[in-house]
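#help-structures

NK: newbie question. if I give both the sequence and a SMILES, will the prediction place the ligand too? trying with fe (ii) ion
OV: yes, paste both and it writes out the complex. here, I ran yours:
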Amino acid sequence: MAKRSKYRAMRADQNGLISYSDEAHDTWQTLISRQRKCVAQYACEEYQHALAQLDLPNEQIPQCKAISEKLYDATAWKVAPVDALISFEEFYHMLANKVFPAASFIRSRQELDYLQEPDIFHEIFGHTPLLMNQRFAEFSHAIGKIGLAAEPADYSWLARLYWFTIEFGLIHSAAGPRPYGAGIVSSFTELPYSIESNAPKRLPFKLMDVLRTPYRIDALQTSYFIIDDFEELFELIEQDLLGAIHEARRLGMYEANFPLACTKHAA
Ligand SMILES: [Fe+2]
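OV: that's the protein plus ligand as structure tokens.
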């Protein structure tokens, strides 16, 4: 989040609206039509239900303002455009105020399947539907509040909890583990991989393991953690999470099960 982005942020006008080109809307249309089919097959029911509730447009990139109105009615959240990469401080501050920061650019047609940084398709299609879910929204809010209370040395530890839940979490279902994380449900390649591939580990969600497990940002994940249900996330935030982070810091990181030269974000 702290490094420099190679993408140019789109600026909202005085009414909070962003003007996208026809080509950008076309890219959205391509991405959302193929991803809707993919999530219908692989994503968890909670995400699919929330996606239906949010009712995103297929033909054009939605405006944050319009999505915020629906989110606000459901859980008092909003989504606001930001530069592609923001600091941990700004990120946690926004979550603590129930505002989800959304990168505003959309990927080029040459990058439909792979992208170095989160774009508006990942932010809107991946992240905003589950902010309609009360329990999930409360968990996201709690991450922001803990981030505000944390010291900078805690940030990367808290980021791992965020990563293995909000970005790349799996949840149990009658059909087996299913993804709810935004990084999976917005990815054409990772969505089937997260369920069908034998390559990644699918582990029971244990807080101390989650905090101590390295993740990669340049490729498909090598480990996922499975929660029983969103109540489990809610119960998590009733614990002393900052205390758990300090304990994880004392114990140290686990060894990575992948090469450590990572510089990118897979969307
Ligand atoms: Fe994300």
